[in-house]
Design goal:
This protein has 18 helices and twelve strands. It has helices at residues 23-37, 54-69, 84-99, 105-112, 132-140, 142-152, 168-171, 174-189, 204-213, 231-244, 251-261, 265-278, 286-304, 307-312, 316-332, 338-344, 347-362, 379-394; strands at 42-47, 72-77, 116-119, 125-128, 160-165, 196-202, 222-225, 248-249, 283-284, 336-337, 366-367, 373-376. It has a five-stranded parallel β-sheet. A three-stranded antiparallel β-sheet has the order 10-12-11. A two-stranded antiparallel sheet has the order 3-4. The longest helix has 19 residues, at 286-304. The two termini are 26 Å apart. The protein binds adenosine-5'-triphosphate and magnesium ion. Adenosine-5'-triphosphate is lined by residues 9-14, 19-22, 48, 50-56, 166, 203, 229, 237, 265-266, 268-269.
Length: 395
């Protein structure tokens, strides 16, 4: 019978209590929270590819900033948001929601007053509501509004940690970029200072869009890139996840899963989940692990690859070329040389190779760091084709 439970969380941020590795990133972000709390505005841009774990990292840091540093925290998801007013509404919405069941919630209720609304079918959650004019006014004076909020919380919270996540809809907007610039300028000059650590999270292209829209935004942000989980942490995470679900594990099966996940957070969850589902006797062996890698490759292809790429690699020849390139990266590292590639291709593949490379460059799958060398543009792509290689080996 298929399992209806999994200790893994593919496709959604990992709950803070199951967060694995990345101790350095967590330390840096928390240190910046401490500096903010002492009265210096801190701005950080957390960048990483899709599925690299940006949201999970920010959620963990928010949890720690609230618990250990007594900060007021809001992790605001701006997916689909295209106006500054709605971004501000969501910020206050999130402050209200995350304060629920906290000792300072009564104060928030008083401060927000008629702007608090009950949401959810049974009124079990709260939100923030205001007219467009009010929201516009809040957006214009956001540093003052936040300062007043902290003041009226009366030392119940010391400083704020705000994450604007998934800024996709806003990153290219000149209005947003200009607003952000004046928000940062106003806050930096403010006296008394606003003890705020503001984080934006997005893929590197989003940051570039923002800087293109307002070049001065190049400077105020500290860039924190997040990507892989170290192998030891990744293996430990897999073992404890299986254990929690009552599944014992063969070390070589765990090793295989770790090899293919390559420390990439999204793959770790997808591969773990697929292997967990492949297991039928509460013991993870090589057979389950192998099945897991193959099944996960299919799922990752559907979930993470752009449809244009999926279309292009429908051809068996292109898939086999990508798999060969990915296999070469195992021995040679990220950058592979053209002459080494040509060495492992058959005549037909050599004939189409230049067209193939052109197409993959157009699709942003492959780049040439130097003449005669190639590299996968994203870690996810490199690892994905390695996973496909496993299936090729099977058939
Ligand atoms: N430190 C971690 N430990 C375990 N799993 C993680 C960790 N970080 C992320 N994950 C898992 O990896 C996947 C991607 O995580 P997350 O959503 O945080 O990434 P993201 O970079 O925000 O992605 P996107 O660009 O799509 O928003 C999820 O399945 C999540 O559960
Ligand atoms: Mg995210």
């Amino acid at each position: 019978m298929p399992k209806d439970y999994s200790p893994f969380t593919p496709g959604v941020p990992v709950p803070p209590e199951r967060f694995a590795g990345k101790a350095d990133e967590v330390r840096v972000l928390l240190a910046r929270c401490e500096q903010a709390r002492a009265g210096t505005l801190m701005n950080t841009f957390v960048i990483g590819e899709r599925g690299a774990g940006k949201s999970s990292l920010c959620a963990l840091v928010a949890r720690k900033a609230e618990r250990d540093l007594d900060m007021l925290t809001a992790h605001v998801f701006l997916g689909g948001v295209s106006t500054i007013e709605e971004a501000c509404r969501r910020l206050f919405d999130e402050i209200a929601r995350s304060s629920q069941e906290r000792p300072w919630f009564e104060k928030i209720l008083k401060i927000f007053g008629r702007h608090i609304k009950e949401v959810g079918l049974f009124g079990v959650s709260v939100g923030f509501q205001a007219t467009p004019d009010e929201l516009r006014a809040i957006a214009m004076r956001l540093p003052d509004e936040l300062h007043r909020l902290l003041e009226r919380l009366d030392n119940a919270r010391r400083g704020m940690f705000i994450v604007f996540d998934d800024i996709n809809g806003l990153a290219g907007s000149t209005d947003f970029a200009n607003w952000l610039k004046s928000f940062i300028d106003q806050t930096s000059l403010r006296h008394p200072p606003l003890p705020l650590h503001m984080v934006l999270a997005g893929i590197p292209e989003r940051r570039q869009e923002l800087v293109d829209a307002q070049p001065s935004l190049d400077r105020p942000f500290y860039i924190l890139e997040t990507s892989l989980i170290q192998r030891e942490d990744a293996c430990g995470f897999l073992i404890s996840s299986f254990e929690r679900a009552g599944v014992s594990t063969d070390p070589e099966a765990i090793n295989l899963l770790c090899d293919y996940a390559g420390g990439y957070p999204a793959l770790l969850q997808e591969i773990g989940d697929a292997a967990f589902k492949a297991d039928t006797d509460d013991h993870l062996d090589m057979r389950d692990a192998n099945r897991g890698v193959i099944d996960a490759a299919r799922i990752v292809g559907q979930k993470y690859l752009q449809p244009t790429v999926v279309d292009a690699i429908r051809s068996d020849r292109y898939r086999s070329l990508l798999v060969k390139l990915a296999q070469l990266t195992i021995d040679q590292g990220d950058e592979i040389r053209r002459k080494d590639v040509l060495h492992v291709l058959d005549d037909e593949e050599i004939r189409v190779f230049d067209n193939f490379i052109r197409k993959m460059k157009d699709l942003d799958v492959i780049e040439s760091p130097a003449p005669g060398t190639y590299r996968f543009k994203s870690v996810l792509h490199r690892l994905y084709y390695r996973m496909l290689a496993r299936e090729f080996k099977e058939t």
